[in-house]
Amino acid sequence: MTPDIFIENFERTEHSDYLHGVIGRSLIIATRFDSMCVNLSIATGLKNEIILRKFTEEDFDAVVNKATSKFRSLNDRIKSFKQPKEISLILHRARVARNEVAHSLTIGFEGCIDINVDEVRFISEVSDLISIIADGDIVISSLMSVFNNEPILSSKYLSGYKNKVVNWVVEQ
Fold first, then answer.
1. What range defines the domain where residue 146 resides?
2. What's the pTM?
3. What's the angle, vertex CA 79, arms to CA 156 and CA 154, rounded to 5?
4. Do 37 and 78 contact (CB within 8 A), yes or no?
5. Could you tell me if residue 33 is left (phi over 0), alpha (psi between -120 and 50 degrees) or otherwise beta?
6. Is residue 41 in a domain?
7. How far apart are CA 24 and CA 35, in angstroms?
8. Which single residue of 15, 41, 52, 130 could bond 77 by disulfide (Cβ 3.0 to 4.6 Å)?
9. Of 131, 150, 143, which is closest to residue 40 (Cα–Cα)?
10. Positive or negative CA dihedral for 153, 158, 164, 165?
11. Which of 71 and 119 is assigned the larger pLDDT?
12. Residue 105 DSSP class
């Protein structure tokens, strides 16, 4: 007999594999949003530093190290974009939803999750979180397009994109 602290129920079913797939795809979308924020933060940070001053080689290395630091929080990176309040609000809502997916979504899902999950409630919660993250993904992707002097896609495409992302995550 083992202590209750360890997972004992390792049963997998077709249904639990579907739910695990939803969790995995949720993490992919959450990680994409995070990564896009990191990339834009690094790019804009470097561009701003380079424009503002001339560098010695040591100065440049320090600026690159600062911009690419893994220890900057997503919150700080979003603040560094200095966008209008409406844009910042969308990005911060997406950050909170990303944190929920990454850190809290599966609390209590040990063992065979078929018996631990109210599927309707869970899929609804995931859909809501991914919808919010998709809004942030659209904003950060558009900001990246502007930074790269690329065209911004139409609102019709972006609306369809959001639906595709949510459906990809939750549909069987």
1. 14-170
2. 0.83
3. 10
4. yes
5. alpha
6. yes
7. 16
8. 41
9. 143
10. positive
11. 119
12. T
Q: Is 7 within a domain?
A: no
Separation of alpha carbons 1 and 141, rounded Å: 52
Structure-block tokens of residue 131: 């919808």
Structural tokens at position 52: 């503002």
Q: Which residue is it, tokens 């959450």?
A: 30
CA 26 to CA 29: how far, in whole Å?
5
- Is residue 95, in this structure, part of any structural domain at all? yes
User: In the chain, how many domains are there?
Assistant: 1
One-letter identity of residue 109? F
Q: Beta-carbon neighbour count of residue 136 at 10 Å?
A: 26
Please compute Rg for the chain using Cα positions. 20
Q: What is the pLDDT of residues 11-65, one digit of tens each?
A: 788 888 899 999 999 999 999 999 999 888 888 776 665 655 666 666 666 666 6
Residue 26 counted as domain residue: yes
